[in-house]
């Protein structure tokens, strides 16, 4: 007779697609594995060596994840930079050079026109022979739009044909997966390959999106694929999610060049279960990834990001007022963006718009390219725009934003310049930035959520950086012309560098990103690592907290939580409070008039009866009781484990037929001589299912599911022999019923959404 307690059956203990894992069972399996390894390590030298390998395998896996993610991020940065410049021209000395690299070795480049060199030719120069005049402008315009459409068409076609999961940011799905949900293929090799390629195409097309969010998805794909090299991560879903938490930290580390910020981002924003061991390994993996990216040096500036800046002037206490104003703007923008984007995405899901993803991408790309080209601040890549907005104007800057009016008797201090009156060029730049702000705010709403890889970090930062730069220049001119006002007396004298507009841009970027994502601690650390200035942490903290308070007052959900709810993923938000004053008994099903719940007895059912029960119900599991008369709870068995065990028994155990009895007892009673061999399935039963009483408040029940990561919970009904169950609300309810002795009921907590 087959005993599944002693002989494991392939498939038992695994999970189906779009189901939730049982954290308690997975952790119990891992503890049993550790005990077995510890006991065997004392028996032989080889077992001792294998135990050391098992202990070290986690760190080795983190090393591989960091190396792979860092290398992919470096390739993405280099390719995206080259393809973005390809929309405007090509390098004659080597088509693989971007604009900046093409002009590095040119001896004919002047300082005033450092972006112009003979080796770099615009498309107008190549096609019609000159680069000035209306015809040349129209030619460059057309080529810009055509390249943008070509890149976006390639991106959406590859996603649609080969890896539908490669679209979007990926962070909402990563959060759901880390909470215990299973989406087969979302972190697979095809998704990794297509997302890496299409991310470059999407960013290069000039759409209002970023690569930072998708890089988290790419890093998690790397972590998931590399998990298959190690048995303890391949066979345990909870252990695998520890690796994915570390991989999420790696993604932010290579996206922003912020290893510490990446670890805090994983802890604060995406991880559901984050033990101290995972914190250390996340830190190590983020360190390795940052070192790998630094070795590749994708931007040629020995930095990990394109918009690394350093400010030289201190901030003053009076400036906290405009910083807080930027925080208020960021909170309002974040709440507006979430509502508008969710409304647009819901329209996409419920109307015919969602049936034409390729057409939608092409139309949005065409609108973006046509409107972006005339404005130099929307034509450039968003990362370059942020870099220019963060920049602190110095002696060597030739940007239009830094082209202030010259003042006689100017006193220089290093590379810093005192506040000066704005020239016509600066005012023109302000008008262009104001138009760019409106354009970015509107176009990002319809871009995020399309069927291409699209991140939200960079567009949100761009909106805030533009608003911050506008406010910073306004404050700078106010201080220059009215330095005798009370608010400027004592710290802003004539000829001094009082206001740093680039700092306002940085604070605004943090405020808007915080308003959209509701990040706080990790966001401040990421921005600090971007700038390298400890003294600007207080302005960043003030703006970030203000934006979160304002955004929370207008809507409790961040953008990722809103998309999780829109897509119907089963996710118990740890930060959300359960406000309903109900008891477990208030939501139990079935009622007295409903049919009784389905149960399995421990020794009185045949294979045929169990298979009929499985066929007639859609529950993901069944309580096992002593008998129909004495419904005392023995344990709980999952539907999938039952199906797999019966199928394996038919194949591997001779004589098993439909009339064979199924036993969940420890000892099998003697069988009559002519009876077919029984099945002993005690090994697949959970002998200690978690139980509560029917008078347990629902807020405690929900908290139990959050804290313990339960997949199901049984509820005792105290005094009446009535059967019932908690009804799970939400899609794909794994289990929706229960039974017990005296009486019990079941809640599929991972799908509990209301």
UniProtKB/TrEMBL annotation:
Q: Which CDD domains match?
A: CBS_pair_voltage-gated_CLC_euk_bac, ClC_3_like
Give the bilayer topology: Multi-pass membrane protein
GO cellular component term, pick one: Golgi apparatus
Q: Please name the GO terms that the record assigns under molecular function.
A: antiporter activity; ATP binding; voltage-gated chloride channel activity
CBS domain ranges (all copies): 588-654
Q: Which InterPro entries match?
A: CBS_dom (IPR000644), CBS_dom_sf (IPR046342), Cl-channel_core (IPR014743), ClC (IPR001807)
Asked if the keyword ATP-binding belongs to this entry, the reply reads yes
Subcellular location per the Swiss-Prot or TrEMBL entry: Endosome membrane; Membrane
Principal location: membrane
Transmembrane parts of this sequence: 56-76, 141-163, 183-203, 215-231, 243-267, 320-338, 358-377, 429-449, 456-475, 503-528
Q: Which UniProt keywords apply?
A: Antiport, ATP-binding, CBS domain, Chloride, Endosome, Ion transport, Membrane, Nucleotide-binding, Repeat, Transmembrane, Transmembrane helix, Transport
Q: Which family does it belong to?
A: Belongs to the chloride channel (TC 2.A.49) family.
> What is the protein's given name?
Chloride channel protein
